[in-house]
């Protein structure tokens, strides 16, 4: 966690919280989380309670990006459901308060795992956490969107057509150079979208182990975080996103499982993870799964290109890291093409 709080007017935020967050007591100190490239995130610590404040970044933003309002809405709607989320305290849509929209939520105490290989844990603990990750994913996709008031949280129609169009536009808006693999991947995806099978579910959009908080004394998930890309769409995109992440290199940068003997480490194979997910949701299997993984590589490449562009424009939450992760765009594009050829 960084002590750089230049992106937050703490006095203004405190004044607003005193009027809008029940039970708020100041003064508070602020620490900026080093993670969370898209929306700057801060822990605010007061005399009796701590909070998390998540805001849109300053500067000119791409249309529809950094939707903290949507993050707030979906997490508030999921309160009391089978999906663990932090308690939402208040949303501020008035840009004049601190310069952009923000929301305040519970500071969930839990364990954040950045490396899915979990080298510091025992073999049985690793398997239990990955199994919990799969359980929570199935729970997200089993949410009754009508019952929780999210039936209008995303448009109708073919989710992949909509997403490919959206992220192609976002990519073009932040493009800094021509990447041949990305051009090929975008063309392939455009021509190979599967027919709509009617599944219309809540999707997280960036479901990874490092966007979850786990109990400090066991595998139980305490909260799923970072709902910026959530919408009503097709659930296989979330599942494929997990598999995509595992294709990346091991370590803090790649956060993947490439080259690991998973069985020896107590970790499931891709096929086993997908099969367990299907069993939990009563599915017979997933045809043409390579498309979904290729799509996830494409979307992540587009996201990272946006991170890189913000760094070059001086608007990144963590400029040094933003440039570092932005350099992965060609690798993600190539990974997408590899998955496409497996379909």
From TrEMBL:
It comes from the Bacteria. GO terms for molecular function: transferase activity. It holds the Pfam family APH. Gene3D superfamilies: 3.90.1200.10, Phosphorylase Kinase, domain 1. Its EC number is 2.7.1.-. Keywords: Transferase. CDD domains: ACAD10_11_N-like. This is Putative aminoglycoside phosphotransferase. It comes from Actibacterium lipolyticum. Residues 30-252 form the Aminoglycoside phosphotransferase domain. InterPro entries: ACAD10-like, ACAD10_11_N, Aminoglycoside_PTrfase, Kinase-like_dom_sf.
């Amino acid at each position: 966690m960084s002590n750089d709080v230049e992106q937050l007017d703490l006095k203004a935020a405190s004044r607003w919280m005193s009027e809008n967050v029940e039970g708020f007591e100041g003064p508070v100190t602020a620490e900026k989380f080093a993670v969370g490239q898209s929306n700057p995130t801060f822990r605010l610590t007061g005399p009796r309670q701590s909070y998390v404040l998540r805001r849109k970044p300053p500067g000119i933003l791409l249309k529809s990006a950094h939707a903290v309002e949507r993050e707030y809405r979906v997490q508030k709607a999921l309160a009391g459901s089978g999906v663990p989320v932090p308690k939402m305290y208040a949303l501020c849509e008035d840009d004049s308060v601190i310069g952009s929209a923000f929301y305040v939520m519970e500071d969930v105490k839990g364990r954040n795992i950045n490396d899915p290989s979990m080298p510091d844990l025992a073999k049985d603990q690793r398997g239990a956490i990955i199994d919990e990750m799969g359980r929570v994913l199935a729970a997200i996709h089993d949410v009754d969107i009508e019952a929780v008031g999210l039936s209008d949280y995303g448009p109708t129609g073919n989710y992949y057509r909509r997403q490919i169009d959206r992220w192609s536009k976002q990519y073009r808006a932040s493009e800094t150079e021509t990447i041949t693999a990305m051009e090929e991947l975008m063309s392939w995806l455009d021509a190979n979208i599967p027919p709509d099978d009617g599944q219309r579910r809540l999707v997280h959009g960036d479901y990874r182990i490092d966007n979850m908080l786990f109990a400090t004394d066991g595998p139980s998930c305490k909260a799923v975080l970072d709902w910026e890309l959530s919408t009503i769409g097709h659930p296989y995109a979330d599942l494929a996103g997990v598999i995509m992440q595992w294709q990346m290199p091991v370590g803090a940068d790649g956060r993947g499982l490439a080259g690991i003997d998973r069985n020896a480490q107590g970790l499931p194979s891709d096929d086993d993870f997908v099969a367990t997910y299907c069993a939990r949701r009563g599915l017979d299997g997933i045809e043409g799964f390579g498309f979904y993984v290729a799509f996830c590589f494409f979307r992540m490449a587009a996201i990272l290109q946006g991170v890189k562009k913000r760094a070059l424009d001086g608007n990144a939450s963590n400029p040094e890291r933003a440039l570092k992760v932005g350099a992965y765009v060609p690798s993600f594009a190539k990974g997408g093409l590899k998955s496409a050829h497996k379909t």
